Amino acid sequence: MIYGAMKFSIGGSLKLAFRPWVEGLENIPAEGPAILASNHLSFSDSFFLPAVLDRKVTFIAKAEYFTSPGVKGKLTAAFFKGVGQLPVDRSGARGAGEAAIKSGIEVIERGELFGIYPEGTRSPDGRLYRGKPGGLARVALATGAPVIPVAMIDTEKIQPPGKVVPKLMRPGIRIGKPLDFSRYRGMENDRFILRSVTDEVMYEIMKLSGQEYVDIYATAAKRQIADAEKAAKAVKE
């Protein structure tokens, strides 16, 4: 009930204001479970994708969005619950990963759509980074659900990291054909299989998005950028 109302108000407003274009909507099943694996360019990705779909998509969100104190905190928590986000405590890397996997499996077992960003974090520069061989592949292999690659286009230009007020422009969404990894079902503890599945999905996302691919993790790239900025600042001082 809450999700429907929030989707109608937020989704309708997003479509009216930004007019996102979409390719491949026919690849989203009308019913039954599926994993939507997307590149991650902007905070707004988790809102634009659900806005153009008829079905509910559940994403993982950090627990802090649901536990902040005060009126603002309660409103934020209500908003994220209303748009289908699930809280995950990311205070411990391993614990966070296990919690995300468990949540994803539960969503799939309910016959719903589970959205995930294989890069693990937003791209710091618009390029596509190496997918982490954890949540995506393990949920897919544990459940046998098809993986649908998704490419968000230009959302980083609408709301770059650190910017609160979005720029009015038209983003795009390309949805690829479902990938079937059922042949590997039950092999979710084999790290070589996890890597292979993740890389195959990232390759399809790269083809859809047209992004330059960088074979390192986005988290490592962010550290490199931060270190470079720190060094440049030190030189100026």
Automatic annotation (TrEMBL):
It comes from the Bacteria. Residues 34-155 form the Phospholipid/glycerol acyltransferase domain. It comes from Streptomyces cirratus. One of its GO terms (molecular function) is acyltransferase activity. InterPro entries: Plipid/glycerol_acylTrfase. Keywords: Acyltransferase, Transferase. The lineage of its organism: Bacteria, Bacillati, Actinomycetota, Actinomycetes, Kitasatosporales. Pfam families: Acyltransferase. This is 1-acyl-sn-glycerol-3-phosphate acyltransferase. CDD domains: LPLAT_AGPAT-like.
